[in-house]
Amino acid sequence: MLFFRTSRSSPKSIKSPLRLVKRHFTLRNVAAAAHLPPRLVLKEEDIEEAFLKGSGPGGQKINKTSSAVQLKHVPTGTTIKSQATRSRSQNRKIARRLLAEKIEAAEKGPDSRTALIAAIKSKKKASKSKKARRKHKSQDKREDEEEEFEDDSGEPVKEQAKEERV
């Protein structure tokens, strides 16, 4: 039987780790991903690959090594250059993903995966801002209630009442 310490007190057994540790997670992202279309798969023979020397921030290492990747999709003529990391293999993966997204966006337009993801993000942002407006609306309402209406002379009634008390 395995033991571990939750604190400096006595050790507890690991019979059921879920009982000892409450895990909070949501399946919301999984559900959203289920509605997205599958990613476009490109044929390797349709892609021309070139490795270029990088530029920009990163210093001598970026400028000397050929870690930047340039991909050209021959049938469409679409070109992508990726220099996201210092690793050539990671840049190859990133460039392929970007090229597939760009081609899919050109073919499908608003029905493409990237357009659907952007629509989901904009809906979430709109929902957040609506929630914030609702929250602050009640605070603004309280502030408005504190300010009384003006009488015939144009001065707030609340201020007149204060002056009369003095």
Q: What topology emerges from the helices and strands here?
A:
Elements: E1 3-4, E2 12-13, H1 17-20, H2 28-34, E3 47-52, H3 59-64, E4 68-73, E5 78-82, H4 88-108, H5 113-146, H6 157-165
Antiparallel strand pairs: 1-2, 3-4, 4-5
Description:
The chain is an alpha+beta fold and 166 residues long. The chain has a domain at 44-113: Double Stranded RNA Binding Domain, CATH 3.30.160.20. Helices cover 49% and strands 13% of the residues. The protein has six helices and five strands. Strands 3-4-5 form a three-stranded antiparallel β-sheet, with helices on one face. The longest helix has 34 residues, at 113-146. The chain is elongated. The model has no long low-confidence stretch (mean pLDDT 77). GO terms for molecular function: translation release factor activity. One of its GO terms (cellular component) is mitochondrion. Belongs to the prokaryotic/mitochondrial release factor family.
CATH topology title of the domain at 44-113: Double Stranded RNA Binding Domain
Strand content: 5-15%
The CATH architecture classification of the domain at 44-113 is 2-Layer Sandwich
Structural class: alpha+beta
Spatial strand arrangement across the major sheet: 3-4-5
Helix content: 40-55%
The CATH top-level class label of the domain at 44-113: Alpha Beta
Oligomer: single chain
Average pLDDT confidence is 77
Gyration radius, in Å: 30 Å
The total beta strand count reads 5
Number of helices: 6
What is the general shape? elongated
Largest sheet features: 3 strands, antiparallel
